[in-house]
Specification:
By secondary structure, the chain is of the alpha+beta class. The protein is built from 6 helices and 14 strands. The longest helix has 15 residues. It starts with 13 loop residues before the first strand and ends with a strand.
Length: 299
């Protein structure tokens, strides 16, 4: 894939066909203890949000050590769509190579092109087909690539994709993001912008929001803003839930009933059959310093 950026400043969703030429970074491969492959009953859509931890080269927990664990985790979980955060360009390419060939991905670096971290969205092409997609930046100038105007510690952005569900013919949106770790002001402004941008979408279609929000569910105005806009927390809405853990562990012992800073949010009308926090590791090695969160949904 090219490594230059031809992303243009746009506020509307791009059609997937036109965008393939406009955006070079559209992919072309497109639980502690053992995990088992997830069954695929009926119309359920399996969704994951996963902060990958950027590809550092220094052990322990280097990307070289974590990559095979990440590969095994994703092959066992087999999500239909994965909202990822923090992946660097080569790391995203590694994951694309490690996934089955029927996966593809959409994303761009938050500084433009291949630069900096990606909010890449991976998807199973047998189940989902992108119709349109766009990126915007969490700033006062959201259509300016790499903009950061709220005093955040890093550039922050959103990847937004409109998919068609090939099993049902229905359409849905997936919005994937990573809010700032340093500034509550930046996080609060980002939540407000996401709500405004979500309000522009076709409200007849379901919206799934995946992300690392860097604040605990139920304990921060960011959470209140997003749920106040009508979104539901899939963890709370689920018919069944797995064991609760803090989703950031920093390679330290897991914390039962700790803060959930990684969420999957949905619009009303989405049925959440099951929600889980995936603690998969191999020989004590976790794939990331975050635990992936998962939801099994019917739209």
């Amino acid at each position: 894939m090219p490594t230059d950026s031809r992303v243009t400043r746009r506020s509307g969703l791009r059609t997937a066909v036109a965008a393939a030429a406009a955006l070079p970074l559209l992919g072309t491969v497109l639980s502690a203890g053992p995990a088992h492959a997830v069954p695929r009953p009926g119309r359920r859509l399996e969704v994951m949000s996963f902060n990958l931890r950027y590809a550092n080269a220094t052990p322990p927990n280097s990307w070289a050590e974590r990559r095979p664990v990440t590969r095994e985790l994703l092959r066992r979980a087999r999500p239909h769509v994965i909202g990822t955060q923090e992946g660097l360009y080569q790391q995203v390419r590694d994951i694309a190579a490690d996934l089955a060939p029927h996966y593809d991905w959409i994303g761009t670096g938050r500084a433009g092109g291949s630069r900096d971290e990606f909010m890449a969205v991976f998807y199973d092409t047998r189940r989902l087909a992108p119709v349109e997609y766009d990126h915007f930046w969490l700033s006062d100038t959201p259509d300016v690539i790499g903009s950061n105007t709220w005093g955040g510690g890093s550039i922050r952005m959103v990847t937004l994709v409109r998919f068609q569900d090939l099993r049902t013919g229905d359409e849905l949106y997936v919005l994937n993001t990573h809010l700032d770790n340093a500034s509550q002001h930046a996080r609060a402004r980002a939540a407000e912008l996401i709500v405004r941008r979500a309000g522009r979408l076709d409200r007849s279609l379901p919206l799934l929001v995946t992300g690392d929000f860097n604040v605990a569910a139920h304990k921060n105005p960011v959470y209140d803003t997003l749920l106040g806009a009508g979104l539901a927390d899939s963890w709370d809405a689920a018919d069944r839930r797995g064991t609760a853990y803090a989703t950031f562990h920093g390679y330290k012992p897991l914390v039962p009933d700790g803060d959930r800073i990684d969420w999957i949010l949905t619009t009303p009308g989405v049925r959440v059959h099951e929600a889980s926090i995936n603690t998969f590791a191999l020989d004590g090695q976790f794939p990331s310093d975050h635990l992936p969160v998962q939801a099994s949904l019917t739209l």
